[in-house]
Design a protein that fits this description.
6-stranded antiparallel β-sheet, 23 strands, elongated
């Protein structure tokens, strides 16, 4: 009997080698595809984080209140772009206007989470208008704005009238102050004051994008019209305001007017240092501010005070509505303070303490006295002629101009 032996089936060495090669190729292709997918995900996530950081800096235009944009980010609160990304999460230096953190919770997974891209590389940002990611080997750039001025240097054109739709005219334009308090870019605020022209028109300039409180003040009555105005980036806004009384309309055969009284000599107090003046009052008596050409300055941590004799009135008559004391001051650096001074009937009366902005621009401040603070009744012309005006300054604040305005009805 012939027996047949079957050979066991299997793969030859060549076949096995071929399979291994094919599997290796497929695995390599899969890994390359996976790497590309991972890189794509990292780029998408990084771009999303860059957009979130941009919104933290300049605000999200989609966040509104009563139909108006209400979120302006770090720039809206501080008045400048942040020096670095850390300032979005922690106050960069005791800033009183800082209202963060501005970063979203999704970026705060750890202390470096919002500062690094998806490759673990720190974002590049140092206060400009772009943020860069370089972790991928190429630069991914997020442009925050076309120019910093888009968010920092906007303006509001407005008009002010009275209840009868009358404009101030040449007589009343100096009786109105338009003021706005804005962040000064260094963590504090500065109050800017303007006067309308005879037609009631005014322009508020260099406004950061945000919602601002605008005050229109009729100085003789200290009547303040308080309004809010949203200033958008790259936008010239306009607004119209009207007092509730007919201040500009006149009537009854009489009228109102104002007389300016300036320093003409030394008063009871002379404690401030002067720059480029023979005597202190000559530093602050000019009709137009001369800035740092001549000025007074404080010294030390206690207030130093100057008061000055003023001109006697020459044109005013009948009833005095109010006396307003003005000072034009600047801080130059932080921590400087000032206040107006009025001396009448032997007593000095101090205005509200002013935190002088640490900038180089002089700002006008005033205190209104509707009645004589010594008697609590209407001023008399003899009291006006006898009064002294001045300024009290703490540390190295500067003052370059002082005067009084007497408003009266005839």
């Amino acid at each position: 009997m012939i027996m047949r032996i079957k050979s066991a089936s299997g793969m030859s060495l060549i076949e096995l080698t071929a399979i291994i090669i094919v599997v290796g190729i497929l695995t390599s292709m899969a890994m390359q595809t996976m790497t590309v997918l991972v890189e794509d995900v990292r780029q998408v996530r990084t771009e999303r984080e860059l957009n979130d950081l941009s919104l933290a800096i300049v605000g999200n235009p989609d966040i509104t209140q009563n139909g108006l944009r209400s979120d302006f980010g770090y720039v809206g609160d501080i008045g400048s772009f942040p020096p670095n990304l850390s300032a979005l999460a922690t106050n960069p230096g005791g800033y009183t206007t800082w209202d963060g953190p501005y970063t979203q919770s999704s970026l705060d997974q750890d202390t470096l989470g919002f500062k690094t891209d998806e490759w673990g590389t720190l974002y590049s940002y140092s206060g400009g208008i772009t943020i860069n990611s370089t972790g991928s080997g190429t630069t991914i750039t997020k442009k925050i704005a076309d120019a910093s001025s888009d968010y920092l240097l906007n303006q509001l054109n407005g008009t002010i009238r009275d209840a009868n739709d009358s404009v101030p005219g040449a007589i009343y334009q100096d009786s109105v102050r338009i003021q706005v308090t804005i962040p000064n870019g260094a963590g504090a605020t500065i109050t800017k004051q303007y006067s309308p022209n005879a037609a009631g028109a005014f322009t508020l300039d260099s406004l950061p994008a945000r919602t601002h409180a605008i005050d229109a003040i009729y100085i003789p009555n200290n009547d303040t019209l308080h309004r809010f105005q949203t200033i958008l980036p790259r936008h010239k806004s306009s607004a119209s305001y009207a007092f509730a009384s007919g201040y500009f309309s006149g009537g009854g055969g009489g009228g109102s007017d104002m007389e300016v009284l300036r320093p003409i000599g030394v008063g009871a107090s002379s404690q401030l240092l002067n720059e480029n003046c023979t005597v202190n009052w000559q530093c602050v008596d000019e009709t137009t501010s001369d800035g740092n050409s001549t000025y007074l300055k404080g010294s030390g941590n206690s207030y130093k005070t100057d008061t000055y004799d003023t001109q006697n009135h020459s044109t005013g008559s009948d009833t005095i509505d109010s006396v307003v004391v003005y000072i034009v001051c600047v801080g130059s650096t932080g921590g400087k303070k000032a206040r107006t001074v009025l001396k009448t009937n032997g007593t000095e009366y101090l205005g509200t303490i002013i935190n002088l902005a640490p900038v180089s621009i002089y700002t006008t401040y005033h205190t209104t006295y509707a009645t004589n603070p010594s008697t609590s009744i209407a001023w008399t012309w003899s009291e006006v002629d006898a009064m002294e005006i001045g300024v009290s300054i703490r540390q190295g604040g500067r003052c370059t101009q002082i005067w009084a305005e007497v408003f009266y009805t005839y």
